[in-house]
Amino acid sequence: MKKLKLYFDASAVGNLDQATLPREMADMQALWEFVKLREYDIVISSTLLDELNAIKDMDKKNAILDYLEQVDFEPVQPTKEIHDIAKLIIQHGILTQKSYNDCMHIAFALVTECDCIVTYNFKHLVNLKTIKSVRRISFIQGYGDIDILTAETLIKERS
Fold first, then answer.
1. Is the pLDDT at 156 greater than 90, yes or no?
2. Helices 22-36 & 151-158, crossing angle to 10 degrees?
């Protein structure tokens, strides 16, 4: 079976150290153990790293950066193609300019041909409208199939 390629947004990696959300934190930490074993390929974008660097709580920021140091990844930088896809997401009314980073996360995942976006952003990403719309854009633009999931879903698939 082909190894899945996962894109993590800030809400996902933020839950690696989120004691106020114990179930989500446990799910992300369980998934992270599989990532550390290289059972998934992962994509980390410069947008995610920028969001992490903006965290004011230094203990939380350092804890998340420590998690990232446990895995192999090369940060992906934005390209014209990625920005064009992000703009297309806005033009199609999927998200608004206010959610540009979320548009960038989707665009990074599509352009780098990820199988899944792992997120806990229920407002903008893990909802039926966004999932269907992103799949439609992916198909129209010639990218592969993509899912938008929480870590819980991936962990359950392994059981």
1. no
2. 60
